[in-house]
Write a structure and sequence with these properties.
This protein has about 350 residues and is α/β, with parallel strands linked by helices. It has 9 helices and 16 strands. The chain folds into 2 domains: about 80 residues, no CATH class; about 270 residues, TIM Barrel. Helix 3 links the parallel strand 10 and strand 11. The structure holds iron/sulfur cluster (SF4).
């Protein structure tokens, strides 16, 4: 697992500080330039102050963006310049309580949008950044300010924003329209075509109907939507009907992702109740996929190890687990599919997971 925090020597700061680490030559006022390095420690000059970061000699930190917090001995590695899996956690607040949530909500929020704006402005050219929560649109005003500013500062960047779709109103249509469908892909979860079941899975009465209204506004504004459905015991049998619903009611979406469960947060707490072993029971997922494909819906399987997917559907299962939380098992060594397989979440438990895996033919 790649650590998204690095040890630092605390700085005399009263506000969070965002710096970009450079091996040589500052290219912006936020750059800290390497002046000394040893086996497990690097020292950078940041406007005359010393920034000391702990990291093994093998770690490439050039271009990484860190956020240092007052009095703290570790820094958030907001951007790893060599990775395509950089996500800013905008808030941990959320108004839903999804049964499979990997990042259970917290009550309090610290507004770090100004720091995230600086961090994004320092990202590598053409970076694709994730913005997630909690529910980012609980802080819609700040989020929209951030987006308006960053597309002006860095028109080369693109964003993937996860939202529960509960907070979009008609008043947002102009902003979304101006933002366009090129810069932002909105990842929006929908678990069932049955309102009652969707509401139960997200722990919020009326969520389905609100989501329908929000999706319509997104569509009219020309926003790009990635519909996301976690496959669980509770909604598995309704997946073929969900496929019909997507075709009939949501033809404007860009992409539909059927996702395997992540065993962390509430996903771990409710694992027995939710996890469906699609390595032995792929029936409903297969029908949902086939119906989507014949109707021209772009559909994918996220977080499905390739050997757990029947061969005819494997081309729909890209490697999607972020590099920092991805692992492979002993069974994977020598696997002919390993180069394209996304493997498992770091916290995946073999004992509680897929029965059928590792039986791969190229
Ligand atoms: S055995 Fe191969 S296909 Fe299966 S999870 Fe490991 S690498 Fe992926």
């Amino acid at each position: 697992m790649i650590d998204l925090r690095l040890p630092v020597e605390p700085l005399p700061i009263s506000e969070p500080l965002v710096v970009r680490l450079q091996d040589a030559n500052a290219a912006s006022e936020h750059d800290a330039v390497l002046i000394d390095r040893s086996e497990d420690r690097r020292e950078y000059d940041y406007r005359g102050f010393s920034v000391v970061v702990g990291a093994p000699a093998s770690a490439d930190l050039h271009g990484d963006v860190l956020m240092l917090l007052p009095g703290k001995q570790s820094a958030h590695r907001l951007i790893r310049a060599g990775s395509n899996h950089n996500t800013f956690l905008l808030t941990e607040q959320c108004d839903q309580l999804c049964v499979m949530c990997s990042q259970p909500p917290k009550k309090y929020h610290t507004d770090l949008f100004d720091q995230f704006l600086i961090a994004a402005s320092l990202a590598p050219q053409n970076a694709y950044l994730g913005l997630s929560g909690g529910e980012p649109l609980l802080h819609k005003g700040r989020l929209f300010e951030f987006l308006a500013r960053i597309v002006e500062l860095r028109p080369d960047l693109k964003f993937h924003i996860l939202t529960n779709g509960q907070h979009i109103t008609e008043e947002d249509a102009d902003f979304l329209s101006a933002l366009g469908g090129e810069k932002v892909l909105w990842g929006v979860p929908l678990y069932s075509p049955e309102p009652e079941l969707h509401d139960r899975l997200v722990g919020k009465p009326g969520a389905f109907r609100q989501l329908e209204r929000s999706l319509a506004i997104f569509a009219r504004a020309g926003a790009a939507i990635e519909l996301r459905t976690v496959v669980m015991k509770q909604n598995n049998s309704s997946l073929p009907a969900l496929s019909d619903y997507v075709h009939a009611k949501l033809p404007f979406i860009q992409h539909w992702a059927l996702m395997q469960l992540e065993n962390i947060g509430y996903g771990r707490m409710n694992w027995e109740k939710c996890f469906i072993d699609t390595s032995t029971d792929f029936g409903a997922v297969g029908i949902a996929l086939s119906r989507a494909l014949v109707r021209g819906i772009e559909v994918s399987l996220f977080n499905f190890p390739l050997c757990t997917v029947p061969q005819p559907y494997r081309h729909l299962a890209p490697s999607t687990i972020s590099d920092w939380k991805r692992k492979f098992l002993p069974e994977c060594s020598g696997c002919p599919l390993a180069a394209t397989c996304g493997g498992f979440f770091e916290w995946y438990s073999r004992e509680k997971g897929f029965i059928r895996m590792g039986l791969c033919e190229a």
